[in-house]
Amino acid sequence: MRESFCPKCGAPSEEGLCPRCMVDATEWLVCESRVTQVVCPSCGSVKQAGAWTDVEQDPADLSAALAMSAVHVHEDVTDLAIAIETREPSPNRTVAAVSVRGTLYGLSVEDTCRVEIAWKKEQCDRCSRYSGGYYEAVLQVRAADRKPDIYELEKAAGIAEASEAELQASGDRFAFVLKVDEHRDGLDIFVGSQHLADLVSRGIVQELGGKYSTHPKLVGERDGRKLYRVTYAIRLPCYQKGDVVLMGKRYCEIRDMEKNQMRIFDLKDGTMRTVREDCGNRPIGNVRDAANCLCAYIDGPVAGILDPETFSTREVAAYPWLHLAEGSYVRVLKDAERDRLVPVG
To answer: What is the DSSP code (8-state) at residue 146?
Structure first.
């Protein structure tokens, strides 16, 4: 019988060095002693390979990930287990204690190392633009022959905020709203990118109606490329969606306004039709502000409903499309000029 021996220690070995001598001869764990990470003190984004990226990680998780990046384990190690504990001796420095266990050539191995993480504070490209008041576009929200009301102003600002969050979540770092200014004519929204301006303008028009146009202005050059600042002129229609207006002798609800036409719902016969845009009709209110009123009785073509202000019974026409019934509720607006209640559904 032939029996092999380890040429280094003389212990039995199938071939060459025994497992213990192989482990002793292998540098199975290498740790970098120091890692430097550039981080923005304003928003917490980090700089990697020369580019800024937003991170969703908790600071402790980021520290652990950076410590892990400094740990290099031999490819033959199996059953690997790594534990990391961090402490912060100063605001700009984190120390990570790394414990590593595994199996190498059939033997258990264990070791520890220490990694220092140096935090270098630098303002990122987005925060630099934001703090410097930089913007690429301004959205001017106005309305035809009137001032946008509080609902429209809040809706426009909300669309800008939601669009900003959507684009930033997709990785567009310059999609930020610099400021929102309200004044006597409407709203001015200053944004960091034309991409965001396009998205917000389309969202406002889709939600509130109207149209918009763009007016670019050359403001300089950067790296040989012309820089433009664009004004988005958003013009809301003279009526809002849901406005109830008196057209001749009939009350109608504006359902949509587009390309000089109005889509209206006739509150008398319950039909829809399209008419040419006419801003000369008298508005009495918007259906979102309608009051819920009790129908006290039905008497043929007439219904008695409780006035939402005086709680006295007022008679209105019981149009078939309303489907009124005694004890049911109906939404109404009040035409103050004519002292008349107008059921809207």
So the answer is: B
Proportion of the chain above pLDDT 70, given as a percent: 99
Show Cβ contacts of residue 31 under 8 Å, excluding neighbours closer than 6 positions. Answer: 70, 71, 72, 98, 113, 114, 115
Q: Are 305 and 290 in contact (CB under 8 A)?
A: no
1 pLDDT tier (thresholds 50, 70, 90): very low
Residue ranges of the domains in the chain?
Answer: 19-121, 133-236, 240-284, 290-345
Number of H helices, E strands in the chain: 5, 23
The Cβ-side half-sphere exposure at 108, using a 13 Å CA radius, reads: 3
Beta-strand pair 51-53/46-48? antiparallel
**What does the pLDDT average to over 234-259?**
91
Cα distances (Å, whole numbers) of residue 122 to 38, 146, 184: 7, 47, 40
CA separation for the pair 206, 283 (Å, rounded):
22
Domain 290-345 CATH assignment equals 2.40.50: yes
pLDDT value of residue 321: 95
pLDDT of 297 higher than 80: yes
Q: Mean of the pLDDT values across residues 124-140?
A: 91
Q: CB-side exposure of 152: number of CA atoms within 13 Å?
A: 30
pLDDT at 234: 96
- pLDDT digit string (tens) for 21-58? 888 888 999 999 999 999 998 888 899 888 888 877 78
1 Cβ contact partners less than 8 Å away, ≥ 6 residues apart: none
Tokens of 61: 């998780």
- Calpha distance 175→155 (Å, rounded): 19
What sign does the CA torsion over 62, 67, 73, 77 have? Answer: negative
Taking the C-alpha atoms of residue 9 and residue 17, their distance in angstroms, rounded to an integer, is 8
Report whether 56 contacts 138 (CB < 8 A): no
